[in-house]
Each structure stands twice: as structure tokens, then as C-alpha cells.
Amino acid sequence: MALAAVHYAEAPQGLQTFAGDVDRRRLTGAAVKAVLRLTEAWTTSNAEGAALLGVSDSTWDRMKAGRWEGVLSQDQLTRASALIGIFKGLHLLFANDLADRWPQLENRAPVFGKRTPIRAMIEGGIPRMLETRQYIDALRGGL
Fold first, then answer.
1. Which residue from 2, 61, 67, 98 could staple onto 94, CB 3.0 to 4.6 Å apart?
2. pTM for this one?
3. What is the per-residue pLDDT across 91-102, written as a single tens digit (0 to 9) for each?
4. How far apart are alpha carbons 60 and 70 in whole angstroms?
């Protein structure tokens, strides 16, 4: 078999990029549901939840009411993925309710600069969300 006969569609899948419309449509429902649940567990305000996911307040309200039928963008799915990873990491790290309180507690770690992790992630966007996820993984000994 010649190498030229191998098509891209047959090539092994790499990291999830959330770039393809089909993947974004497939993942949106579960991502929205997960982010709604974790922001509820973290007791975020509506404005914080919307800012973390990168949507408007009105879109967030429709999502919470189950009336939103859109598709998350690549950036929004990246945010959701980071938030879900942080939530999971916190629940692996802490065996009590601290896992859900931690994102609202002022933190002196350099990545947060004496702000709450939620405030730091809202202000720092996707890069800070990914740093927060890496920080939690490092605390767990995962890096």
C-alpha cells in the first residue's frame, strides 16, 4: 500500500481542537450542562458564570432555563474543558466541601495574585484557566 493512498480521514486523531462544526455540535450539550452544574456547585453569580464560559448574560440566562439551542465556539468549548478539568481535579484533591469552596477563596499563589481563582480566571481568560488547571494538577502531583 502506497503512503499516498492514506487519506486524512483515516489518520489517527490527535488532540481535540474543537475546531470542527460536527464536534462542536456533538459536545455543546454536555459541556453546557457540566458548566452549569459546576458553577452552581461553586456558587458563582450569573455574571461570573457567563464570564467564565465567555457568553453574554442573556445567553447564560437562556442556558440556565434550558432555552438555548446554539453551538459553543471553539473558545467556549476550550473554556468549558478547562473548567471541567479544574472541577474534577479539585474533587480528586479535596475529599470534602473544600473542592467546591476553593474557587471562591482568596488565593496567594502567584497564578492568582491574592484574588479568588474565579476572579483570576475571569480577568485572565483562557490562558489563566489553563494555568489554573495546571496548578490544580500540580497540587495533585499530576505534573
1. 98
2. 0.85
3. 999 988 999 999
4. 11
